[in-house]
Amino acid sequence: MSVEWLGLHGVFVLFIAAIIGFMIARRDTTIVCLAGILVLGLVATYSLSESVSGVFNSFIYAIKELAGTILVISIIVGMSAVLTRSGIHETMIAPVSRWVRSPGLAFWITGIVMLVISLFFWPTPAVALVGAVLLPAAIRAGLPAVGVAVAINLFGHGIALSGDYIIQGAPKLTADAAGIPVGDVIEASIPLVIIMGVVTTVIAFLDLRKDMKTGKGVFPSPFKGSTGLNDDLPFSIHSLKPALTLKQKRWLSVMIVASFALDVIAMLTMKLQGGDATALIGGTALIILVIVSLMTHRGQGLEKTTGYLIEGLQFGFRVFGPVIPVAAFFYLGDAALKELYGSVLPDGSTGIVNDLGVALAQHVPVNPAVSAVTVTMAGAITGLDGSGFSGISLAGSIAHLFGAALGTGIDTLTALGQIAAIWVGGGTLVPWALIPAAAICGVSPFELARRNLKPVAIGLAVTTIAAMFIL
């Protein structure tokens, strides 16, 4: 084993530990990642100029890898903004709201609608779309505002985002870090997402129903949601003056639903995954944005369309800004190192992470139980920054490491790490990540986080055990 091998791999492990430590301390990891990229470059090339250039080039590499994901989410946010402001979203959800007649129905209908919309629009825009229409209906049916917030969180930021089967932003990040196809992560995540979703939502509903009977910890007060002007929301929920007739809104609602339904059919029949599926969804969303913007704003449609695109891109880069440095570092554990610095690893090496996995298998007793628990803990730790996305590259990298050591199950471990990171940081446990849903529902984000803690913790434990048997 050469000194160069020990240097590169040792530096990589050292900075992984530092990143985890900073995440536990709830401190930003950008500077740590930059330092890790710089030091890896120095150890790989022994050249200060090449290592400094490598810091910038690693960002370029990460942005190229993430460009499709950032762009499709930005377009969808822009599309969601024009649907909200034109009032089309109210027309789309109105048929569902009439079924909200009891607290139980209000919880499950709100959750399921949030799940479906989040799969296509992403959870943060869906909060405004669902909350603006279903919250008043749910409260009239007797469900407290905190119950609506719990449903929105668990179904949207939990189930929908942790699977992310339509937009495929989350599995793209974890699959790249783990060095496996996106389709493998998606397929492996299906049973785990179902288990996690069922356990958390059932426990949350039972706890909520029990507290509603005793009057403990619920807020049966009239609707007091925010106006939607919170800075953490990508757009205001205020609608424009009625520029579209009711007939036009209904026609556009049917057209939008049918368009995305056809996308799903095409993805299934043509077996589109990864970048191809993202491109199909993104193109559809962009066309819808243009059509609705032109019809809504008429004479100002050209300018307003550009404005919605800019608004979406601002949101996309604000969300993925913290992700790029982290992804840039972890991409160096695989293909990026060779692309940036050439063949700096010994003959027979297949990447830093692969080499570490082989070494781990040779020197540490690794079994499915230890691997699953470790990956879940790593994923949960990466979610403590409240993003959910900034650390899932780390979760994918660690899953690859343990999967290589086991000789199997990289896809399952990657999906498990992704689920843990998203559920903790994506908007169900970390209070500062809960602000959009809490603001719409007019509840405290800390109260919402407290309510989610028990069901999410139990759900992660059950899902981890299930992953041990799948491995």
TrEMBL record:
Signal peptide: none annotated. This is Transporter. The chain crosses the membrane at residues 6-24, 31-49, 61-84, 105-122, 188-206, 251-271, 277-295, 315-333, 420-441, 453-470. Keywords: Membrane, Transmembrane, Transmembrane helix.
